[in-house]
Amino acid sequence: MRVFPWGFWLLCVASAPARGDSGSKARSCAEVRQLYGAKGFSLSGVPQAEISGEHLRICPQGYTCCTSEMEENFANKSRSEFEAMVKEAGRSVQATLTAQHRSFDSYFQDLLNKSEKALYDAFPSMYGELYTQNVKVFKDLYSELRRYYRSSNINLEEALNEFWTRLLERLFKLMNPQYHITDEYLDCMVKHAEQHKPFGEVPRDLKVKATRAFIAARSYAQGFLVGSDVVKKVSQVSLSHECTRAIMKLMYCPHCRGMSSVRPCNNYCLNVVKGCLANQADLNTEWKYLMDSLIVVADRIDGPYNVDTVIGTIHMRIAEAISNLQENKDSITAKVFQGCGNPKISTKGSSSEDKKRRGKVTLEAKSSAQALEMLVLDAKGNLTALKTYWITLPGSLCSKKVMASSVSDDKCWNGMTKGSYLPEVMGDGLANQINNPEVEVDITKPDMTIRQQIMQLKIMTNRLGNANIGNDVDFQDTSDDMSGSGSGDSCPDDVCGKRLSKSPSTRQPETHAIPKQSGHGVSGASSRSLPSASLLLLLSVAVIALQHLWR
What we know:
- This protein has a domain of 336 residues.
- 59% of the residues lie in helices and 1% in strands.
- The protein has 21 helices and four strands.
- Strands 1-2 form a two-stranded antiparallel sheet. A two-stranded antiparallel ribbon has the order 3-4.
- It is rod-shaped.
- The two termini are 14 Å apart.
- The N terminus and C terminus are likely disordered.
- One of its GO terms (biological process) is regulation of protein localization to membrane.
């Protein structure tokens, strides 16, 4: 008669640890039901009170309010929500860079437009036929300047040289209407006249200054667009399967465990997000170089290259050049006739409109230097703030989006239960995730989309570097050797050789569906989180004891 009470006592002991801190009464799942419904899921099949969690594949397998279907739905939801967080953060950066581009582009285009308008307003009264019969030459110049600025494949020096050549041909004919001047004669005239600088030093001086100003302005404007495009493409990179599991465990497992009010530990959140955004953090070096290069070129634009003065006074330099030609008309004509011979007399009567230079009109340039200075100051402030974007993104997401607890909080969700989080925070970038305790990261397989964007940053930084010293770079040429794009970013053999063995050698294809079985979310769990295992162990002890007593 002693057997039954002895066995019954053992069975009672066996069942005791299964509840742990849940007490004798199963906790209500009202909070989880409310959350689950708010996320747009049906409440059909959702437990009213906690159930045993042997079926869970991501969350700790203690008592839970989540079924397998709920866990999978929460995992998919956490993935989409986290990706949305990254995109939203990226859109903020894109908006900043796009706004800077828009402001500078508007300023620069306005500068060019005002110069062109000033020319159209003043030249008719200054030069009469010298202008009215050559309007297209001036329009073509401004058109070419705009095309160059918009990154068309144009050689700016050649465009300026072509302008001065065409202008000289037209003006020489108009200033010598009594002669019949053929195209062949004009070719000879240009060769001889250019030796004697018919326009004075203006063409050479304008070519040097305008080329530097336009190269800097074009590269500067393009740099903002490239930066914005890189952020957009990188922000669209999908989460890995391992990251989806980690984000689910971070964001929704505490709800399944009945700890909806417990916030994730800050360092725990940082390790999860750093593991998920390891490839993105590798943009940091080249991203900082781009921001620094834009700041340097901004100083050039507002300083030595003096964009406001150079671009805003193009019409004045042209007027100066025409005046030089008019003042030296007789000596230039004589030297041309000496070198090319006297052209035939024209049968058409000469017009006196020539040539009589109209009354002098004073050209003025309205300075917008203060506006440029403000633009540059604003841009430099924003660029400086964005330098560390990629390595500060995890902390920003944890504090503002995931709503992690404070660093000193020892009653936070640590991935298993409410308590402190002991593991150290990982460094930034792919190579530093080799021992990440929360996300399994293969540091030997960098994301190729992100590697391509790193290369785009390098190309743009190189263009800005050339612009800084006045060198032009063809914006169509992005043929840098992509085959070696990852060579500088791959990890050394002694690091990659330390690949953790916690995952099988044959990895499953990337997918966001929950796998049938994985021990990753179970390892390290306490006995209280594994009621089924402890129950089987104690039942085995009970059976052995009963058998011994029956003997």
